[in-house]
Structure formats: C-alpha cells, structure tokens
Amino acid sequence: MSLIKCFPISLLFHLLLISISIFTIQRSKSVEDILPKNWVIDVNIVLMEQELQLPSAGSQALEAEPAEVRKSIIAEQPAAFKQSENSISNKTHENIDAKKTEEIVNKGAQEQIKKMQEAFVAKVNAQLLMIKTKAFFRVARSSIRSLVNPEITSAGREVINDSSANITIGYNEEGSLKDVEISSESDKLKAILERVNWKAVPLPFAYLLRYKGLNIRVTINNGSLLIGIEVTENKAG
C-alpha cells in the first residue's frame, strides 16, 4: 500500500483518538464541578456501610436530644426506680452511721482499757511502795537494835531505865547520810547513843525510797529497848 493511500486512514485514526481524549477531559471536569473540592467522608457511615448497617433513626435522635429532654426523661422515671435509689441511699447512710458508732464504741473501749491499765499500774506501784516501805522499816529497826543494844548493855540498863531519846537523821539529795542530831533528858543515854555508828543504818535510797530524813525514838522501859521510826518528809519525785 502506498503512502498516499495510508494517509487518510492514519488521519481518521488520529482524529478519533483526539475526540476520545476531549470527551474524557470534559467528563472529568463535570464530576469535579459536582463534588466540592474540600469534601469529607463520614467515618461512621463508611464503617456502617462496611458492616452492611445503617444508623437507626432512634439512635440518631437520642444523640441529638438536648440536655433538657434527658433531664425530663430522668424526672419521669418509674417510682420503683426512685424507691430503689432511696433504699440504696438509706443503706449507705446506715452503713456510715454503723461505722461511726463502731468507731465511737472502739474509742470508748480503748479509753476504758487505758484507764484500767493506768489503775492497775498505780495499784501495782502502791503495793510495791508498801512492800519496800515495810521491808525498809523492818531492816532499819533490826539494824538500830543491833547497834544500840550492846552499848546499853555495857553501860548497865538500870542506870538509864525509864529514859528516852530522839535521834534525827537527815539525808542529802543523793540519798546519803547528811547529819545526825540526838536529844535526850538523860545525859547518860545521850552519851551512849552518840557512840553508835549511825552510818550503819540502812539508807532509804537503797530501797528506792526518797526520804529527806528519819525520826527515831529510843526508849528504855523496865529494862527493854523500844524503837520507833517515822519519816520526817518525802522528797519530791
């Protein structure tokens, strides 16, 4: 086939291609004119379409309800529901009241136990103090007798019969012997008692007794030695 014969066919073919291109461009422009440039697909609609479901009108209406409508719905709840809420509220208050009552009872019980413990400790301390005091006076009287009796025997009891004397013993802050004072109407008895080693008398501090001093009464009656002891004053603390 010669070039002159092929030229018309080629020309028709190119014209056809040009026509098709023009048609395609015009159609695409029409689509662009229909759809807005900034269009957004609703994600919820796409997901529902994928699940082959569409949002129900009821759900859409519920979402669109204003707050006032929801309040009116809540206000129109059945009485049984309101009673249930009231019963729950009452139970909550009862639980709180029971808890407060339990706390008060426990606090009162703890205070009572504390008072009982304090009373028990005070009673034990009083009993210990009594035991220590009795032990000290018993030992002190026995010690004084053992110190004074030999001196009286050597001087002769008949010489100092029916006579008495007072011995005042003082202690310092550390509980040690500070001074000794002897007074008597009988010079002979006083002289005998001045020879006694009063430092050998047990110290109250050794029995955890904080005494400032002791008053000791020595009496010779019908040849018998009588000894009386009393505390002058207790120290503070």
Following the backbone from N to C, one meets helices and strands in this order, namely HHHHHEEHEE
DSSP helical segment count: 6
State the helicity in percent bands: 55-70%
What is the terminal-to-terminal distance?
Answer: 144 Å
Residue-averaged pLDDT? 75
The major pleated sheet works out as: 4 strands, antiparallel
DSSP summary, beta strand count: 4
Strand content: 15-25%
The assigned structural class equals alpha+beta
Overall form? rod-shaped
- The radius of gyration is 59 Å
* Strand order within the widest beta sheet: 2-1-3-4
Which spans of ≥5 residues are poorly predicted at pLDDT below 50?
A: 29-65
Task: Provide structural commentary.
The chain is of the alpha+beta class. It is 59% helix and 16% strand. It contains 6 helices and 4 strands. It has a 4-stranded antiparallel β-sheet with strand order 2-1-3-4, with helices on one face. It is rod-shaped. The N and C termini lie far apart (144 Å). The model is unreliable at 29-65 (pLDDT under 50).
Concise overview:
Helices cover 59% and strands 16% of the residues. With 237 residues, it is an alpha+beta fold.
Note the main attributes of this structure.
4 strands; alpha+beta; rod-shaped; 59% helix; 237 residues; four-stranded antiparallel sheet
Per-chain topology:
Blueprint: H1 3-34, H2 43-50, H3 57-63, H4 67-75, H5 79-155, E1 163-171, E2 177-184, H6 187-194, E3 211-221, E4 224-234
Antiparallel strand pairs: 1-2, 1-3, 3-4
